[in-house]
Design a protein that fits this description.
2 strands, flat
Amino acid sequence: MLSCWQKDQWTYGTQTVSSVLALKDISGLQLAKVLIDVLEMAFGVPMIIRLGNAGGEMSLRSHIRSAAGVVDAGASTMYGDMQYLILASFVASRNVFAEATLSGETDEYNYPNLFKDVNG
């Protein structure tokens, strides 16, 4: 059985919370509500789970087969798959605020842009 876990730790000054949802409980934190909303949206569920669910089987290199339907077990391992997902999660986490500003620009997915108020 393979297991993976994540331990969140959010710190402001000397105060530490173990969930992004608890950021609101930190006294003295002067962060705009919209930024907290973006953090909650992005990190409410661990990024590795979000990417794994979004990619499904195709997010695992060990699932990729040749045209003949053969899996190269020597080239693809579960360890390699986990390394790939962890790296992808890190990269996806780095751009959370920039990507949040791009939402709501099209009607294709109908995601709201959290940074735009009713006046645009």
